[in-house]
């Protein structure tokens, strides 16, 4: 649905630019760094719209590439964290706990 809305807005914008370009077809003086020249205003309007679209497209592509790289890095990190943990075997056996020996001087409660 979101893509359809953007497509419709793009068509409306293109229609507005086309109408403005057709209505303004008078020649105008276009000044650039090395000189100037008379060009139809329709070419200047369409050229400006084209360069603006290219600039937006390139900036969007850079952002998309950056986000894709971030997703790849996060997926690698997630895969690393989800690896099963191997049990660690002790290097030395655990010491056995011995029962304390009963002191012979203390009588036991056992009946013989």
TrEMBL record:
Ranges of Low complexity composition bias in the record: 81-95
Keyword Transmembrane: yes
GO CC annotations, alphabetized: plasma membrane
Record's keyword terms, sorted: Cell membrane, Membrane, Transmembrane, Transmembrane helix
Domain of life: Bacteria
Classification via InterPro entries: LapA_dom
Region (Disordered): 79-112
Residues annotated as domain Lipopolysaccharide assembly protein A: 24-83
Transmembrane stretches, start-end: 41-62
PANTHER family, sorted: MEMBRANE PROTEIN, MEMBRANE PROTEIN-RELATED
Protein known as: Lipopolysaccharide assembly protein A domain-containing protein
Organism encoding this protein: Priestia koreensis
Source organism phylogeny: Bacteria, Bacillati, Bacillota, Bacilli, Bacillales
